[in-house]
Every structure is written in C-alpha cells, then in structure tokens.
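In response to reviewer comment 3 from the previous cycle, which asked for concrete evidence that the modeling workflow produces usable outputs, we include below a single protein chain processed end to end. The sequence was submitted unchanged, and the resulting structure tokens are shown without manual editing.
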Amino acid sequence: MRSYPLFKLLGFEVRLDPSWLVLAFLVTWTLAEGVYPDMHPDFARQLYWWMGLASALGVFFSIVFHEFCHCLVARYYGLPIRGITLFIFGGVAEMGDEVPSPKAEFRMAAAGPIASLALAWAFQQFTGLGESLGAPIAVTGVLGYLALINTVLAVFNLVPAFPLDGGRMLRAALWAWKGDMLKATRISSRLGSSFGVLLMILGVLSFVQGNFIGGTWWVLIGAFVRGAARASYNDLLMRHSLKGRKVRDFMTIDPVTVLPDISLETLVSEFVYRHHFKMFPVVSSQRVLGCISIDEIRSVPRENWGKVTVAQVMRPCTEANSVSADAEVMELLPQLVMPMASSRRMVMEGDRLVGMVSMRDLRELIALRLQLEPTSTSESASRVA
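The workflow returned the following structure tokens.
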C-alpha cells in the first residue's frame, strides 16, 4: 500500500500509511467510549471524543519522536535514512543500508526507548504541573494517558525480541560477542518469532475470556511481530547474498519483447495473459524503443484496444524502467521495493536489451542459493560483519 508524505523534520521525511488512520480511530474510539468515561463518568460525551482525539494526536507525536531519535543516531553513524513511515502498528525508520557496527546498532536501538521514557517523564511533569495550577481535568487526563502510553511503548520495545528495539539491542550484544551479524540476527529473530506466537496465544485467551477488542489486538500485534522477525532475517540473508553482485548475474536472458505496431488487443491476449508479465520491452530491428505496462493499457478505454497500437502509448527508456547490466544489485534493490515503482526492469548494455530483472526473480534465485550454499553465505556474512 502506498504511503503519503506529510512533512520533513530536519531532513527526514515523515510519511503516513493509510493503515495508521485505523490505529488513530481505534485509539480515539477506545478512549472516548471506554477509558475516559470510566475514569471521569460525569463528563459530556462530546468531551470524551475531544479527549480521545487529542490523545490520538499525542500518540502520533510520540511515535514520530521515538522514530526521529532512531534517525538522529543513524545519521550520526552515517547511515542513510529514507524516512519515517507511520502505519497501523506504530512507525518505522527506513534505513537505506546496514548498520556498520554492534555499537552503532545498540545505540540506535536504545535511542527509541530512551526517547519514549523521556516523553513519559515530560508528560507526567506536565500532568502534575496542570493539577497544581488547577487545569481542567480533561487536560490533565489526556496528559496522564500520554505519560502512560509512552511508558508502555518503552517497556514493550525493550522486550529482547527482534525486530523490536530490545531485540536489536540483543542482536548488537550477540554480534559483538560472536563476531557474526548473521548468527546474531538468526538468534534474535527466532526469539522475536516466539514472542509473536506468545502474544497471539495471549490474544486468543483474552478473546475467550470476553475481551474481544483487546484479544484481537494482541493476535494482530503478535502476527505482525512474528512476520516482521522472519522477514527481517530473510532480508538480511538476501542483502548479504547480493552484496557486490552485478545485475547481469541475476537477470533473465532472452526476455519476451513486443513489436511497436501490434494492437493493445493483441498485446493483452497474446502476451499479458500468456506470459503473466505486467511490463514488456518494445523492440524493433533489434533496437529498444521503450516499454509498455498494464498502466498504459488501462489508460486506453477497453473498446479502443483494437485500434490503438503499442507505439502510441509506450513509454521511452528511463532510469525508472531500465538499468545497466553492470550496475550493482544492491543499488537497484531499494528502487524495486519502492511504493508504486515497477518491479521489473529492462537490463541494457548501451542501447541493447540483454535481459530483464525483477524482484520476484531476485527472491527466487536468492532462495535457491541459500538452499544450495548456506555455509558460504554465512561465511560471507561473517566477513562482512
């Protein structure tokens, strides 16, 4: 799902995944209909909703501040940060490279919980100050909730289960001890996966006891932690296997191409439905003219497909759809996984098409390499670490 940029903070772009709106609504609704009415039963219902909305905005600020502190430490160690993305389970600082050392990993991971604890202390001080000055109970109630939620956020993230901050701190310690980043990640990600299963079990028990909303959230969070732990380890394996390799080593040779003078009707029936690709190079007399994808096809009304040719709607060759055969795969990888980006690229030698490369091809080939050469991959990771 696409994320939308909100603003930039000291050079870090903050983006919002639409799923975060679900979290914002659930926080607002839970507080307005459950928590605050129990704490302050004499308030008007409309005030509960304003308190819930203010709390949701405070949670937004708290998550951004938590991730922003991760980013500041990463910048100190020279790590490129693509931005901060907020989604239904919180937020994530997206790094463009691997952490250079155990010390950098530990400090960057620790920055988040420290930031949350600092916010918890600050909100608690504001709560006490508001009470001493006679501030409205609605205001001090929201401040007290934000102090609590930041404490919970810090404690939860300190659990030694990768990819939580505590799991990253554990990985840093194991990495420094064992001297092997891959092995440290494997151990901490297994703990993360087990912790996710534990959360899911607790969620089911809570659900059985009648706490439907809380139980559902525990199951969802547990599934997310378990999936993220396994995905993070697999991503690290893939990155180490790709390091230093060229695009030509992973491309598919003899790609399926189309002529510029065929109709879109022919393109869809004889190429898209037969080969199941979303993008095809357009070639004439062994010269690459550009490419055409289903986006261009969909821009033409269905009844005109028989009249419109590929040449009329194709796109020219650009960095967005082509790559040099001698480019490093690690430079291409972030582009293939960017939201709304094409997952297939034409591989070029000068103006000559020599193959195609896609995210799916990379994953399948890496999976085969890891099955056939697990030892060599681990040794390579140790040397890199």
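Residues 247-368 form a domain with the CBS-domain fold (CATH 3.10.580.10). We consider this sufficient to address the reviewer's concern, and the full set will be provided in the supplementary archive.
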